[in-house]
Amino acid sequence: MSAKELADICDRSLATIYRRVQAMEDYNLLSEELARDSDGTQYNEYKSDLNEITISVDEGRLNVNIDIEKDTVDQFAELIEDLERSGEDDDPEGDE
């Protein structure tokens, strides 16, 4: 769905939609893809990556579980980033 479509559906300004979209992208709740309309004009479309949110209260504690759908490429990229970060932690002086 495009930002314009979201603005129309939500009855909000494009600026508001773009702020909300950016916040949701920051939390990996949305994916952005480039699309083209019939005359070749390019625009961004947004897709929800959110599968499920579970909220529970247990012994006075609020628990929130967010299940996000990620494709294999994204999962692999995160694995590599985690490995690189763990390697940096092993070498506090930055020496290789």
Give me some keywords for this one:
single chain, about 100 residues, alpha+beta, two-stranded antiparallel sheet, 3 helices, 4 strands, about 40% helix, about 30% strand, flat
How would you characterize this protein structure?
- It is built from three helices and four strands; from the N terminus they run H-H-E-E-E-E-H.
- It is flat, with a radius of gyration of 19 Å.
- Strand 1 (30-36) and strand 2 form a beta hairpin.
- 1% of the residues are buried.
- The chain has a two-stranded antiparallel ribbon with strand order 1-2. The protein has a two-stranded antiparallel sheet with strand order 3-4.
- It has helices at 3-10, 14-26, 72-90; strands at residues 30-36, 42-48, 50-58, 61-68.
- It folds into two domains: 1-48, no CATH class; 50-96, no CATH class.
- Helix 1 (3-10) packs across helix 2 (14-26).
- The mean pLDDT is 85.
- It is an alpha+beta fold.
What's the topology here?
Blueprint: H1 3-10, H2 14-26, E1 30-36, E2 42-48, E3 50-58, E4 61-68, H3 72-90
Antiparallel strand pairs: 1-2, 3-4
Helix pairs in contact: 1-2
Number of domains: 2
How are the strands ordered across the major sheet? 1-2
Tally of strands? 4
Helix and strand pattern: HHEEEEH
Q: Estimate the helix proportion, in percent.
A: 40-55%
Count the DSSP helices: 3
Rounded to the nearest angstrom, the distance between the terminal CA atoms is: 45 Å
Query: How big is the Rg?
Result: 19 Å
Mean pLDDT: 85
Could you tell me the strand content as a percent range?
A: 25-35%
Largest sheet: 2 strands, antiparallel
